[in-house]
Amino acid sequence: MKYPTILVCLFFTLCFSLSAQEITTANSPLVGASGESIVNSTANSKNHQTLLAVMRATDLEELLDQSGPFTVFAPSDRAFENLSGKSVKDLLDPKNKKELKDLLTYHIVAGYISASKILKAMCRGKGKATFTTVQGDTITATMKGIDIILTDSFGNKATIVVADSNQKNGVIHEIDSVILPGKI
């Protein structure tokens, strides 16, 4: 009876092992920035200036600079540009601060969750793992080939393109899309 579960776990482990080389050698300013806070690493990244602006606009910059640990699923600037509906300029308008804060905190999970921990949780969940975000809604992690895919409340998907950028107060995983909480 446990044989299929063991096979599923071995499959995910193999897939993750194969993708680890690609993930750690990706050309991202976040990789190798360990020892800094999540905010400092984001500030030093050329690919995450919109995320930094969102942190500042929602007054979460201080929280993400000091405490933790946190796991941040960090959309790239391109991911924000591809966000349908409101433009980034509209989101950064002070009248949208609550909506923007909900959006940002939906990309944050309390605690340190490395890619291997996500993978282990998927093994325990028979190929699927659910995480509760700081915002309160959940995101679901699954595998597609060798990629870890995050799915939001609306079924939108984001791929982790750079995993395990360890920081002094948590870990950052770069994602290729903005995911949306159900309450936004």
From TrEMBL:
One of its GO terms (biological process) is extracellular matrix organization. GO terms for molecular function: cell adhesion molecule binding. Residues 1-20 form the signal peptide. This is Fasciclin family protein. InterPro entries: Adhesion/Biosynth-related, FAS1_dom_sf, FAS1_domain. GO terms for cellular component: extracellular matrix; extracellular space. Keywords: Signal. The keyword Signal applies. Residues 35-179 form the FAS1 domain. It comes from Zobellia galactanivorans (strain DSM 12802 / CCUG 47099 / CIP 106680 / NCIMB 13871 / Dsij).
